[in-house]
Design brief:
The complex is a heterodimer of chains A (446) and B (486). Chain A is of the alpha/beta class and 446 residues long. Chain A has helices spanning 9-19, 48-60, 80-86, 89-92, 104-121, 133-148, 162-173, 191-197, 220-230, 317-320, 333-370, 394-403, 432-443, and strands spanning 66-67, 125-126, 153-157, 178-182, 184-185, 188-189, 203-209, 235-240, 259-263, 279-283, 296-300, 306-310, 375-377, 385-390, 406-407, 410-411, 421-425. Chain A is built from 13 helices and 17 strands. In chain A, strand 3, helix 7 (162-173) and strand 4 (178-182) form a beta-alpha-beta unit. Chain B has 486 residues and is α/β, with parallel strands linked by helices. Classes of the chains: A alpha/beta (446), B alpha/beta (486).
Chain lengths: 446, 486
C-alpha cells in the first residue's frame, strides 16, 4: 500500500508543522461535519505480485480464439516498434501539449498524423483525433449543421454502422435535429430514395458509409453526383470503419466529400474490447473553423525556428464555453501516436500491399464460401469484410464453431438486422488455412 | 529534455522510395483483386518511406522533445498529474485483454466483463453512488452523458426544462456539454469565499432549471461548503445536481458525493485513478449515479448476476449509446489496477498526502506570491501574478521561466475568475525534496522578477524551441506538411 507514496511519516510531520496544523484531519475541516465520510472505503489492496496474478486470471478467463470478427474493430498485426516507441514515458506520461516549448514531440507527431490522414483520405485538413468512429460521425453531422445553419434535416444511410447511428441519435435528438434514414437496396444506399429525399430543401447533409457497414464499397461517385445535382449546398459526409481500405480505394476527397470521418483503430491500436479507439475527422480547408476538436499548426519561435502549437483554439470550449464547436477537449492522443508510428512504418508500398493482402484474403474466403452448401456470399464489391447468408441457424453455427476454437463472424441479428446474415472480416491475421477451417465448419453444418 | 540535435525534421522530409519499415506475409495462393471502376485508387497516398531504424530514431528523438511525469515535477492544477504505475501498463497489455473483441459472445469475454463490473463496484464505493457506466471516453464525454441523463430523467417526468446552472469558476467543458445536450446556460457568480453564492443561486433557480453542474472541490481547490444545501434547493424545485468529479483526488475516503445530494457525476480515470495522460488522452470519464438515475444510463449495461457476466441491451429509458462500443476498456483496467494496488485505506492516504502537499506549498509560498482567495483549500492552490505585475511580469513569464529550471509550469490563467491565475496541484506523488526544489525555484523566480525581469520575459532559454508565435499559427494556417497558405 505504500509503494506509491514518497512522503515519510517524518516528512508529513514536518509539512504539517510548516502549515501550522496539528493533525491531517484539520486540513479537511472545510468539509462540513454532516458531509464527512467516517468509515473506511471497503476495497481490498494487493501487492504488485498478487495484483498481476489477479489480472492474469481475469485475462485468462477470456477465451482465446481464431476470429473473423470485425464490424468496426479490427485485429491487425502490430509491429513491435509501435509498442516500444509508444511506451516511451515522454509520450505516455505527458499531458496535453499546453506548453509547446516542452511538448514539441507530441505536437510534431500530431502534425505528422494530420498530414498522413489527409494523404489517406484525400482531404485538406485533419483534426488531432476524436474519441472513436461513432462520436466522430456524430460530431461530423453537428459540424455540417453549423455550416448548414437554418436547415435541419440530415439524411443518414441505413448502411452505416448501427452503433454509429445510435450514437448520432443520442447526440442529435436533444438538439432537435431531424434524422431521415435512407434505406438500403442490396446492402447499399438506395440512390433513388436518396435522390427523392434530396428534394427536401431542409437537408443540410447526407451521410454514407465507405466502405459501408456491410463491407460494400458504395459507388461514392454516383452518390456525390446525385447530391451535387439535387442539393448543391448540402454537405456530403463519408464514414469509414476500416481506413486501411484507402490503400486501394479512391479516397473520399477525390469524390468531393466535405467531411470524411471514421475509426482509425486499425492503424496500430489493439481491439481492446472496443476501446480506446481512434476517431478521425478530416475536411476541406474552407470548413476548418467549423471543425470540432484539437488541431496542430506549424509556426515559428522568437528565433525564427520552426515549431508546432495547438491552434484555432478560438473554436474551443475553454475560450468559447457554451458557444464552442464541441465540448470535446483532449482525447485519444496516445492512440493517434500509435497510428502515426504505424503508418510511418507501413509507408506507401506497405500500405498498398497490406490493403491488397487483406482484400485478396477476403476474396479468397468469398470464393471458398460461395462454393459451400449452406452459405452464400451477398454480392457486392467489398474490401476486407462481407456478408454471408445462410439457410442454417446461425446462432447454433457460431456456438458450434466457438467450441471448435473459431469465431466465424458477427451475426447481424446482434444489431437487430437480418437473422440469416453474418458479417465476416478477413485481415492479414487470418491465414488461408484459417479460411479453409472456416469453410470446413460451414460444411459440417447439418 | 534536450536531444543532441534539438530539432527533428518531419517524417516527410526523410527516407526515400523503396524503403520500408514493415514486412508482410507474401500474398501466395490468393484470389485476384476484385475492385474495379472509379473506386479503384489511382493515386498513391503520400506516406513517408522509411526503414524501421529510421522510424525508431525519429520517434525516439521526438520523445526527447517532450516532458512527462516520469521526468519531474508536473504541478498542473486540475489535471492531477500523479504517478502512472508501470504495472498498470503491463496489465493492460495482457493478450487476453488487448485482443478481446467487442463483438464476441459474452461467454468468451467473461474476464473482460468481470473487470468492468469490478471497476464499477469500486467507483460506486468511492463515490457513494449506486450505479456506474464506463461508456464515456473522457471527462467532457462524461459530462455530456450525465447532462443527457438529467434531460432524459426530466423528460420522463414530463418536461426536460431549459437551463443548466454553472458557477463562473467552472471549466469550459461544463457549459459546452450543457449546450450540446440542448440546454441554455446560466452562470452563477461565486461569493467572496470562492464558493457558489447562495443568494445568487436563489435568484436564478426556478422551474425552468433542469440542474446544476458543480465542480467539487471547485477549481480554486475549495470544498463547496454548501453543497448539501444547494442540492436541497435544486431538488425542491425539481432540478438535479451534477457533480464534476475532476477533483475527486481531494476527497477519497473523506466525503462521498452520493451522500452529499449529488444525483449524477463523472470521474476522470486519467486524473484521480492514475492512468497516463498520453500527451492528450485516452482517458476515461465514467459516470456514477444514484438509483433513480439508473434507467437513463447509456446502454448496454454490464450485468453480473449469478456470477455470469453479460451486457443488458434492453434499456427502454436509456439515453442510448454515447460510444461505438463500451468505452475505453484498456484505460478502465489501469484504473482498476491502481485502485486495487491501494485499497480503501491507500486511496484515503492518497487524498491526505495530496491535500497535505498542496497546503505545504501554499504555506511555503504565500509570502512570495499573492493568494487571491485566502481561505482553506484542499488538493490545489491558486496563486496569481499580482505581486510580480509591478515589475511588468505576468503569469506567462513566470510559467516559462520555470521551464528553464526543469519544472513543468502550473496551469495558468484558469480559473477565469482569478486574474493571472497560477494553479498548483502537486498530488500525492511528489517527495518533499521535489516540492522543496519547486518552492526554492519559485522564490528564486519571484526574486528574478524584481531584479532582472528580462530573464523571465525571454524565457524559456534552453528548450528545443523558444516562445512560439501562436497568432501566426492561427492566421497562416499550416495544418499539414506542405499544406501552407491555401
Amino acid at each position: 500500500m505504500s509503494r506509491f507514496f514518497p512522503l515519510s511519516d517524518n516528512d508529513r510531520r514536518e509539512m504539517l508543522r510548516k502549515i501550522g496544523a496539528d493533525k491531517i484531519e484539520s486540513l479537511f475541516s472545510s468539509i462540513p461535519e454532516s458531509g464527512q465520510f467516517k468509515g473506511t472505503l471497503n476495497i481490498p489492496s494487493y501487492s504488485e505480485q498478487e495484483l498481476l496474478d489477479l489480472f492474469r486470471n481475469l485475462a485468462d478467463s477470456n477465451t482465446p480464439t481464431q476470429s473473423f470478427a470485425g464490424a468496426g474493430v479490427y485485429a491487425h498485426y502490430i509491429p513491435a516498434s509501435v509498442d516500444s516507441l509508444a511506451s516511451r514515458e515522454e509520450f505516455l506520461t505527458a499531458y496535453t501539449p499546453y506548453q509547446p516549448e516542452i511538448s514539441q514531440g507530441t505536437l510534431q507527431a500530431i502534425f505528422e498524423y494530420q498530414t498522413c490522414m489527409c494523404a489517406l483520405t484525400g482531404m485538406e485538413v485533419s483534426n488531432a483525433s476524436m474519441y472513436d468512429g461513432a462520436t466522430a460521425f456524430a460530431e461530423a453531422i453537428l459540424m455540417a449543421k453549423r455550416v448548414g445553419k437554418k436547415k435541419n434535416t440530415v439524411l443518414i444511410s441505413d448502411a452505416i454502422h448501427p452503433h454509429y447511428r445510435k450514437v448520432a441519435q443520442s447526440y442529435l435528438e436533444n438538439l432537435g435535429i431531424r434524422i431521415k434514414a435512407i434505406p438500403t437496396l442490396n446492402h447499399k444506399v438506395d440512390i433513388e430514395t436518396l435522390s427523392a429525399e434530396l428534394e427536401n430543401e431542409d437537408v443540410f447533409a447526407v451521410a454514407v458509409g465507405y466502405p459501408n457497414f456491410f463491407g460494400i464499397v458504395e459507388p461514392l461517385d454516383e452518390i456525390a453526383l446525385t447530391v451535387r445535382e439535387k442539393a448543391p449546398k448540402a454537405l456530403l459526409v463519408s464514414v469509414t470503419t476500416e481506413p486501411l481500405a484507402f490503400g486501394m480505394l479512391t479516397p473520399p476527397g477525390e469524390f468531393g466529400v466535405d467531411i470524411a470521418c471514421g475509426e482509425a483503430q486499425s492503424f496500430g491500436n489493439y481491439p481492446g474490447f472496443g476501446g480506446p479507439l481512434l476517431g478521425f475527422l478530416t475536411t476541406r480547408q474552407k470548413l476548418v473553423r467549423n471543425m470540432p476538436g484539437r488541431v496542430v499548426g506549424q509556426t515559428t519561435d522568437v528565433d525564427g525556428k520552426i515549431g508546432y502549437v495547438l491552434t484555432l483554439s478560438a473554436r474551443e470550449q475553454h475560450i468559447r464555453r457554451e458557444k464552442a464547436t464541441s465540448n470535446i477537449c483532449s482525447n485519444q492522443g496516445w492512440c493517434m501516436l500509435r497510428a502515426v508510428i504505424y503508418l510511418a512504418l507501413l509507408g506507401k508500398a506497405g500500405l498498398r500491399e497490406l490493403a491488397e493482402l487483406n482484400h485478396r484474403r477476403a476474396e479468397t474466403a468469398k470464393k471458398a464460401i460461395s462454393r459451400s452448401t449452406h452459405f452464400e456470399v451477398v454480392p457486392g464489391m467489398s474490401f476486407n469484410e462481407f456478408v454471408v447468408r445462410s439457410d442454417t441457424d446461425l446462432e447454433d453455427f457460431v456456438e458450434h464453431s466457438v467450441v471448435n476454437g473459431m469465431f466465424p463472424g458477427v451475426r447481424l441479428s446482434k444489431f437487430g438486422l437480418a437473422p440469416d446474415e453474418m458479417l465476416i472480416t478477413v485481415t492479414e491475421m487470418n491465414t488461408v488455412e484459417d479460411i479453409h477451417r472456416l469453410v470446413e465448419l460451414m460444411e459440417a453444418v447439418k | 529534455m534536450k536531444t543532441l540535435r534539438g530539432k527533428e525534421k518531419t517524417i516527410f522530409q526523410m527516407g526515400g522510395e523503396g524503403k520500408r519499415g514493415m514486412d508482410l506475409p507474401k500474398p501466395e495462393g490468393l484470389a485476384p483483386i476484385a475492385i474495379s471502376g472509379p473506386c479503384m485508387r489511382s493515386t498513391t497516398p503520400d506516406l513517408p518511406d522509411l526503414s524501421e531504424i529510421e522510424v525508431v530514431r525519429h520517434f525516439t528523438r521526438l520523445s526527447k522533445l517532450n516532458y512527462g511525469v516520469d521526468d519531474g515535477f508536473y504541478p498542473l492544477g486540475s489535471c492531477t498529474m500523479k504517478h502512472n504505475p508501470k504495472i498498470n501498463e503491463l496489465i493492460a497489455s495482457l493478450d487476453g485483454f488487448k485482443w478481446s473483441h467487442p463483438m464476441l459472445p459474452y461467454g468468451m469475454v467473461q474476464g473482460t466483463l468481470k473487470a468492468m463490473k469490478m471497476l464499477e463496484d469500486a467507483l460506486n464505493e468511492i463515490t457513494g453512488m449506486d450505479g456506474c457506466s464506463l461508456q464515456p471516453a473522457a471527462g467532457a464525454h462524461g459530462e455530456l452523458t450525465g447532462v443527457m441523463m438529467i434531460r432524459a430523467c426530466l423528460e420522463k417526468r414530463g418536461n426536460p426544462r431549459q437551463f443548466i446552472l454553472i458557477p463562473d469558476s467552472a471549466h469550459g467543458t461544463n457549459p459546452a456539454s450543457s449546450a450540446f445536450s440542448g440546454y441554455e446556460v446560466k452562470e452563477v457568480a461565486s461569493d467572496e469565499t470562492g464558493c457558489v453564492d447562495l443568494a445568487k443561486l436563489e435568484e436564478v433557480l426556478d422551474e425552468n432549471v433542469a440542474g446544476m453542474m458543480l465542480t467539487n472541490p471547485n477549481t480554486l481547490g475549495i470544498f463547496e461548503k454548501n453543497i448539501q444545501k444547494i442540492a436541497d434547493m435544486l431538488h425542491e424545485k425539481g432540478a438535479l445536481l451534477y457533480m464534476d468529479g475532476a477533483n475527486m483526488n481531494a476527497m477519497m475516503g473523506k466525503a462521498r458525493p452520493g451522500e452529499l445530494g449529488v444525483d449524477v457525476m463523472h470521474l476522470n480515470l486519467h486524473k484521480t485513478f492514475s492512468t497516463p495522460h498520453g500527451g492528450g488522452g485516452p482517458g476515461a470519464g465514467p459516470v456514477c449515479f444514484l438509483k433513480h438515475m439508473a434507467p437513463f444510463q447509456p446502454a448496454p449495461v454490464v450485468d453480473g448476476e449469478g456470477g455470469y457476466h453479460k451486457l443488458d441491451w434492453n434499456r427502454p429509458d436509456s439515453i442510448g449509446k454515447v460510444h461505438g462500443f463500451y468505452g475505453n476498456f484498456l484505460v478502465a483496467l489501469k484504473a482498476l489496477a491502481y485502485i486495487l494496488s491501494l485499497g480503501g485505506k491507500g486511496l484515503e492516504q492518497s487524498t491526505e498526502d495530496a491535500v497535505l502537499a498542496a497546503n505545504y506549498i501554499r504555506a511555503s509560498l504565500k509570502d512570495n506570491f499573492h493568494v487571491p482567495f485566502d481561505i482553506p483549500t484542499l488538493h490545489e492552490v491558486v496563486f496569481n501574478d499580482k505581486k510580480q505585475a509591478e515589475f511588468g511580469i505576468s503569469t506567462l513569464d513566470i510559467a516559462k521561466r520555470l521551464i528553464d529550471y526543469g519544472i513543468h509550469p502550473p496551469t495558468i490563467y484558469f480559473p477565469l475568475i482569478v486574474h493571472g491565475a497560477l494553479m498548483v496541484e502537486p498530488t500525492e506523488s511528489e517527495s518533499k525534496e521535489e516540492m522543496d526544489y519547486f518552492i526554492e525555484i519559485m522564490k528564486k523566480v519571484a526574486k528574478e522578477a524584481s531584479i532582472s525581469p528580462e530573464l523571465l520575459h525571454d524565457a524559456p532559454h534552453d528548450t528545443p524551441v523558444r516562445r512560439l508565435d501562436e497568432t501566426k499559427a492561427a492566421r497562416n494556417l499550416v495544418l499539414r506538411y506542405g499544406g501552407g497558405d491555401e
